[in-house]
Write a structure and sequence with these properties.
The chain is α+β, with helices and mostly antiparallel strands. The chain contains 35 helices and 25 strands. Pfam families: Helicase_C_3, WYL.
Amino acid sequence: MTGTPRTLAEELRTRTDRGLVGLLRARPDLLNPVPGDVTQLATRAGTRASVVRAVERLDRFVLQTAEALAVAPDPCPYDTLGALMGGDTGDAAVAAELPRAVAELRAQALVWGPDDRLRLVRTARELLSPSAAHPSPTGLGPTVAEAAAGMSPGRLQEIIAAAGLPATHDPVTAAAALSALFSDRARMTALLDTAPAESVAVLDKLLWGPPYGGVTDRPAPHLQWLLDRGLLLPAGARNVVLPREAALHLRAGRAHHTPEPVPPPLSPATERDPQLVDNAAASQAFTALATVEELLKEWDLGGPGVLRAGGMSVRDLKRTATALDTTEQLAAFWLELAYGAGLIASDGEADERFAATPAAEEWLQLPDHERWAVLAAAWLSATRTAGVVGSADAKGRALAALGPHLDRSPAPEVRRRALALLAGLAPGTAVPAAAVRSRLQWERPLRSAGAAGQVPAPATGRTPAVAGAVDGGAPSSGPAGTAPGPAGSAPAGDLRSRLAQWTLTEAELLGVTGRGALSTHGRALIDTTSADTTTASDTASRSAAASSPAPAEAPSPADTDAAATRAAALLAPLLPEPVDHVLLQADLTAVAPGPLHRPLADALGVLADIESKGGATVYRFTPASVRRALDAGRSAVELQEFLTAHSRTPVPQPLAYLIDDVARKHGRLRVGAATAYVRCDDDALLSEILADRRAATLRLRRLAPTVLAAQTAPDQLLDGLRAMGYAPAAESTAGDVLIARADTHRTPPRTAPAPVPDGPPTPDATLLTAAVRAIRAGDLAATAERKPVHAPAPAAPGALPRTTSAETLATMQAAVLTHSALWIGYVNADGAASQRVIAPVRVEGGFVTAYDHTSDEVRTYPLHRITGVAELADDSV
């Protein structure tokens, strides 16, 4: 195709396959389904939903460029766009970055045309152009022609006369003359030199937007001066607007108050020793593992119940937070982390409650670094967001931990991008969270401030004046716009900034970062490009990629798992080695000088209570804890041997006495099921129990010198006697002591919750190549030059060719002999019609075998399904 393209479709046809692949990769929604030809691709690229999705993913400067094109003439020369972005005096940074911005808009098919005729896609212009209901982020108002469209011809003539312009013959030329005056720098300066100071102050008030204001029925003289010369034009019954041309003159030609061609820097930076950062991150990673393990142990016999609407109650969340010795918000994070990793779930029973899953048993058996990899990979790709727990949903109901409606689809992208920004810094370097949030806001300003399907106004760099008070009267109820505060601030409801803040907090809790800097294993966690050992050159190239405004494509789950495995290998040497001993002390405590081997930790957890956690865990032995071990089937001798074997210090005498004393009393009393009974060989002990007033609630009576009967259940009787200071044991119907080891409660096999995608998935190279080939082939079939078909009536544009069966057969047979290509209309078995370009090879038995240029394969077509045929021009294929 030669000459200037007249439509977006014509420009797309001139693009290389690589250019179309780039468009489809940047806007994957265009692929569902694959367009039949380039015209369909261009049409789909101009739909509102697709344009909104594309505009939401522009960085701030590219978006500012699109906003400038929306208020520029259509088409807009590149120099005019440069003047709008840089102003009359120019801006070196803007001039340097503007080619990138235009190239990005053109690559995403939001802008088309050569540099001397840049055109913003119509839908994008409608979204970004200023209107009374939706003020432009530039703060500009309508043009003179738009604002004067409803004015009477007489009033227009009065305005141009007051402005010193000659009379015209119609309103159109009058508006054009006034627009030319406002756009002429010299004449406009001369006009404003005659304006009263109060009039100039009013213009300054409306200069950066909103451009609307209110007036009374009798405007003040300085306002009347502006109204008489068209510097304020009517925008309703009692509202006025500053025309766009006048505002651009007052702004020295700039469309934006503060263009932002480069992203905000990640500063101030604090440099730390990378080894200290890694050690701090590893310590926190170990704490994270211990916390999740403690959660699973807390729910070993079954967790809290599931609410009818899903999730767990606030009371249960508080209990879990108390058990984990943390806050409710952090408890929600650990719960969601375990849930996202598939370690906890609901059991699905009639009395539904949460519990650990069978996968939790497998997870507990893994080495520490592999357990961390499972948690890190689940966290990085999860869309469930613990930070929103406790906030209200659309119906005003509080969102519950482990409940529905916690998915926030941008979360994985924000997590990866926030960590990538830290990865772009030198190892051991930390920056404030506010700097990371500002960078993310710059990269996705609309996604930070707007809801899906809307294009809100990003910050203009200056808080605009309140519309409606230009004459000192009451504010008008007419059109007025608002805009967020200065760039870099976090507007209310800024989900992306909150996600970034949660990411940095959670990364520190999980041990991905340490002391605010990304750890070595944290860098490996987000590096899904290679499995090789990182070199200095690799680090430099990845740092450059991390500083790029465009976030990388989301990796596949397999890539995420592989990166987590490599990160775990780097973390492994930093984690403390498990120890197989404790230090027993005379105050009935035991100190574990490090993480204990799991069997030792489990056994000690039954025999003693954890008193304090940290680098060295302190266990305390009590009569109740020793009795718990005896109830679990251990004898006093076994407990003594266990402590002797695993203590680097001798067993203290007080501890040995405690074990012997509890063991001597343990089991002397036997509780069985009559309703319940107490049996003891020592009748004096039973008499003591009967005489104790605390036993009144147990309703005991003597059946025999060695047997007491009770009217309470056996478990209640056991608890009551233990509360009185005795050590009874439960017994079976055969008279044997029952071991009080409760069975663990596990859910049926459960899969981890799947992330909610943020829009269509990014297509892979194979799909992109096949899609471009199909689009090219379909375009060839739709646009190939054809020889005329002798038909009773000319076919409508785009209609299938129509020929008789005899003509179709004769044309096919001739094409086989001449090896020429044909254009056919074909209706498949489902009744779907399509156009195809084929090269017939053989015609026989009512079928034609041909090479199909549309699908790039040899196929066989029934002749009765071919609606018609036409020969192609010699140079069409």
